[in-house]
Design goal:
The protein is an alpha+beta fold. The chain contains 3 helices and 4 strands; from the N terminus they run αβαβαββ.
Length: 101
């Protein structure tokens, strides 16, 4: 028998990934709502680890959202580089038909 968790505990990499996606959506000003879906939600509720996060978007196609996330990441990289802090992205994401690197 599986026990369903009351809460979902995020790993550091999940916090980084989802934080970046939410910031990009907010920065765009389009009012995009992101929802985690699929097996990741099931696995997290069952207390299992999962590396595959599906994100549903309410008002934008995946490729267009990937472009927004890339623009957001570029702005953060530019800001970090201005302060002389090297930035090497640790995450690569696939979103619908768009890749985010």
């Amino acid at each position: 028998m599986h026990v369903v968790q009351d809460t979902i505990d995020l790993t550091d990499i999940e916090k980084e990934l989802l934080g970046t996606l939410f910031k990009a959506a907010q920065q765009s000003g389009k009012g995009t709502v992101l929802r985690c879906a699929g097996g990741w939600v099931r696995d997290k509720l069952l207390g299992r680890e999962s590396l595959d996060i599906d994100v549903a978007l309410d008002n934008i196609m995946g490729k267009d959202f990937a472009d927004l996330v890339n623009a957001h990441l570029q702005s953060e990289v530019s800001m970090l580089c201005c302060y002389g802090i090297p930035y090497f992205g640790s995450l690569a994401w696939y979103v619908h038909s768009g890749y985010i690197f």
